[in-house]
Amino acid sequence: MERRSFIKKTVLSSFTALIGAEIVFGSKIQNGYTPLALQDPDPYKLFSKNKDMVILNDKPWNIEAQAHLLDDKITPNSSMFIRNNGRTPEKINPKDWLLTIDGESVKSKKTYTLDDLKSKFQKHTYQLTLECGGNGRSEFDPPAKGNQWTIGAVHCASWTGVRLSDVLKDAGIKSNAVYIGYHAFDTHLSGDPSKEPISRGCPMSKALQDETLLAFEMNGKDIPLIHGYPVRLVAGGWPASVSGKWINRISIRDRIHDGTKMTGTAYRIPCNPVAPGEKVKDEDMCIIESMPVKSLITYPKTGATIKEGKSLNIRGHAWAGELEVSKMEYSIDFGTTWTTCPIEKPSNRLAWQHFSAKIDFPKKGYYEVWARATDTNNTAQPMLLPGWNPKGYLNNACHRIAVKVI
Ligand SMILES: Nc1nc2c(c(=O)[nH]1)N[C@H]1C(S)=C(S)[C@@H](COP(=O)(O)O)O[C@H]1N2
Ligand SMILES: [Mo]
Questions:
Q1: What is the pLDDT of residue 38?
Q2: Mutation pick for ligand 1 pocket among 130, 243, 287 (CB with most ligand atoms within 8 Å)
Q3: What is the CA(86)–ligand 2 centre distance, in A?
Q4: pTM score, two decimals?
Q5: Domain 294-405, what fold?
Q6: pLDDT of residue 1
Q7: Which of 97, 141, 170, 382 has its CA 20 to 30 A from that of 295?
Q8: DSSP of 134-153, one letter per residue?
Q9: Span from the CA of 243 to the centroid of ligand 2 (angstroms)
């Protein structure tokens, strides 16, 4: 019979340090066994997230914010939603990290170290709104499969890095370039190394915008591992799935990128509106580009109470994909009448904008405050769920909070 081998003293002492208590029978732990306390790490601690964040899935990690957590003008890490399609890469050594630029439409395949990126190209900082294409999916009827995001899959952090356009131009873009596609270090949930969890991209026109970054800092610090350390693509105003985390390769393609989750129905909506529940052929589905106009009341929390005769101060953010928000309104009568309120200019293009209002209520009772943003094309948010689509994307219905006047 094989003899059991027990863990080494050094391993035991690291377990003890991590657990923060003496493991009384620690010397009896078999080699290779991890104590339960370390098998299932607390995601809030692991990712430095606020305790009010809501976990939708742990394999892969999908965690969303609540409206009140998004009150800051610049979203702190603690309130940023997490959307993984596969497994987070375990360790990436920034010294060994290399970015490869390749594809049919690159003049010559080139690689860059992190130092190359930081020393050869000019640094830029932008605040960028990233919203998951599936944010709001939970309201779809008939329901759509996938993470049941409510309103919390959006953030607007500050990103610092180099312009993707500067790097692509340095590598050389052929005139037949159509699209870019990213590849990253995360691995497929099945463990199959030949499969990528996600590999998306965008047309050259979006890739070459000033604000499209290869970012290496988020809110002035190294990007946290879960959000894409050490380098992430950031393309504000488009579905956040375009903003590849942990990237190691960007291909300049002579066709629309055909990586994982670019084809079929992924991140696509019917090219023409369909009835709820209708089946749509793959060829009738179109890739989502700019995200629609939307807003969020971040203060107060729904369920707020105020005393009769007092006014209520509300505030929040509004964004409109590639466009700007030109008008902000609120309603306290279920959308019958609307009052315009101030909306600030964005800190830069593709950043969300802040609104506030002071609201008076006619008498005691139950109210709802609804917020509605309008973009520079004069398109307003729909009051309730917009056009149904099979995968539950782009729900930009008006956000609403309940208020009691007592
Ligand atoms: N490599 C990689 N990049 C990725 C993803 C992923 O699973 N792997 N998820 C995408 C999706 S669908 C979204 S919504 C955003 C989420 O970014 P966050 O987790 O930093 O909030 O990252 C995008 N980039
Ligand atoms: Mo997403």
A1: 80
A2: 243
A3: 12
A4: 0.92
A5: Immunoglobulin-like (2.60.40)
A6: 46
A7: 141
A8: TTTGGG-SS--SS----S--
A9: 9
